[in-house]
Records
---
Amino acid sequence: MIHEPARLLIVAHLYVIDSADYVFLMQRAGLTWGNLSSHLSKLEEAGYVELIKEFVDRKPHTMAKLTAEGRTAFDAYRHQMKALFADLPDESPGSG
Amino acid sequence: MTRKALLSEIERKAWLQTFEHGLWDIAIGLLWLSFGLSILTGIAWMTPIWVAVALPAMQQSMRRLIAPRIGHVTFRGRRRRSMSRVTAILTVTALLGLVFFLLTSWSTRSDAPAAIDWFRTHMLALIGLIWGGALGVAGWAADFPRLYTYGGILFGALLGADLGLPYNLAEALLGVGALITAAGLILLLRFLWRYPPLQESGTEGALEKRTGGDGSA
């Protein structure tokens, strides 16, 4: 779930902050609104993200926040990737 | 680069973006302008008026001008605490301004104690050191690098006045205030040009970019 590049970017941003709205995530992650909406829906279905919908100045406003499950999943992903690449030697220039 | 360093960079970039708009610079510049005007006009309550007017104005500007462009984000504990510290530092700085104004007025009176004379002799350099230092500390506390520059400019301007350059305290503060306010305005204009407003539409999760009159994307 998190490995998909766009979702990884979204989750990484939500991991380091407390919460953010769609405008922030769209602007920081460089996604179109359709992409962002789709990925956030998937993350919400997986239980990794909580979407808090409200109205501000009579306009819809949605804040996204990583759940505890989402933080645990991201931490697990980080450790997996770290372990995966830990044994790889540094590639010297020009090697095949 | 480790994964943690990349995450720190993401967080820091998000944090620095919250200062990119220049509103804080405008607020700080206007603060010094209000100090300068207070001294020039002898009206001590100009600074409290600034605080009473500027803070709500800034809050509204953030909501109506800034948030539609870069969105709204809440940071985790460390950053939240740093903003509280900055607010406290700037509030204390404003109060110190009032205290120094009153001390300055008192020191010119014939019944003022002799000890005040030392203060009066080196007043400008002392004020510059304290206020410039306060801005520097606020810059460090908030991870807001421009405050270091503003603190340095303020200290330099007041030190120059103390060393005999041809301007007084009020003029120094007006000059520094105007400079910082102008910098803030430039940053704000650049920000408004760089980030077009975005908004969520009435449909769930849908976002649309505001376009020109013809509605094209």
---
Amino acid sequence: MQNNKKGLTLSRKHNLIGWGFLLPATLLIVFMSFYPGIQGFLLSLQVGHGMQLTFGGLKNYVRILKDPVFKEVFFNTFFYLIIQVPIMLVLALILASMLNNKHLRCKAIFRTAIFLPCATSLVSYSMIFRSLFTTDGLVNNIIRSFGMPSVNWFGNEWTARGVIIIALIWRWTGYNMVFYLAGLQNIEYSVYEAAKIDGASPAQSLFRITIPLLKPTILLTAIMSTNGTLQLFDESVNLTSGGPGRATMTLSHYIYNTSFTNNPNFGYSAAMSFVIMVIVAILAFVQMKVGDKR
Amino acid sequence: MIRRGKRVLQYVFLTVVSILSVFPIYYMICGATNKSADVVGGRLLPGSYLVSNFQNLILQQNLSAALWNSIRNATIMTLLSLLICSIAGYGFEIYHDKGKDLVMAILLLAMMIPFAVIMIPLFRMFSHMKLINTMTAIVLPAISTPFLIMLFRQSARSFPHDIIEAARIDGLNEMGIFFRMFIPTMRSTYAAAMTITFMGAWNNYLWPKIVLQTNNSITMPVLVANSMGGHYVDYGMLMISVLICTIPTAIIFFALQKNFAEGITGAVK
């Protein structure tokens, strides 16, 4: 208290320095995320094209409900989410628990190889897969060499969606695997050895030890991949160009087209983007609730 | 015998997955050295078209500008991002009190905001400030991310308070403790953060596509996407642009791979 007369006590000084440390990052997030976020919401209440906008209340949101294209891209995005995310996370978990085995040889080689796809950019790997799956591309050549008819991958809506899912799994499985491997480092290896002595099968150790103890990491990867899949853009644009028709177009791709091609409709795309935000928030909430219970 | 069979099966499975993971990259590297028809046909041996593919690329695309822009933008963004987010994460953890915890909780909400929500307001903001086609427009929105702040806050949790007290007694000021004590001990967290940020900055496509509208300001992913445009696609040229776009991230990947896992281990505890 004596120091108060001189000015600041030591702990108050530290407190202020602490605020100083977090100020630049906080201001940047406020001006580069929250402020545009609020503006985006106000924009979603406006109707009109280009810069001629007038207040329209909830008109844009009503329009979403009636827009058949929105339904289509919404379906596509959710299809990717429901099929791809579980397959990828389960595969990543299996690979991570295999690589966590102390007696496994060539561990570093396997890990590097499986993590390697992460070194490619999203646009790059989209191009690689586009070229692999073209009508007279390598994949069809292999299929033909087995005497089967070649597949028009990008001409059929289901195969085109399939290619996007294969590509996504290829790119992201290793990434999630590394998170699980990191999480597994925190589990004492002796737990597994004790379980083995007690006669537990690998599947039992996976379900009884790995999954419960990795819960926070699984939750983190589930939220990250859900968030990423709902915002999928690069693959839709570059791998399939959204086609055939709009069969593989994602929500973000449609929002981009509505905002930046032909006749920009900023208000309507802002409203659609808020739908993504609400879904992201709801799904994150559900995942946390489910994650808590187990 | 059963156990042995299982172990063999495990190796077979891991080998197949590894080959499938590496194969498209091998295909891409071979593709960069072959002519378009051979790339599509799936020639899996190195060819002799590397130079001519490269010549076509520099003839048709502004490669040097895109490469320079990408390197410059990603480097500056990574440096600023690491500095600003780590000092904030450190501040949130070391000097934490109710007020700062509340601010952190609010900042975390920003993770929920999809980029689609803010891209139009950001675009209008930057065009208002006459910053379209500039590095500022690319770098500024992504410097500070709740994810990185959280990563550094988690790692600051394991930073011993004794060190801070001892350093204070030795007369080091608070800034000095951060720069001279925290940064050197948290190398693996910085490596992980650097990998994530550099890759994110390098690979970003949507925002550069919106805000970089001249041929002189584009970045590598935009260039790769442009190489696909038009009716006739030169796959050899496409693959060499993909290869060039991948080299820098591959270097970072191999250099920091081990640290990446370590840094994340600290974060997911």
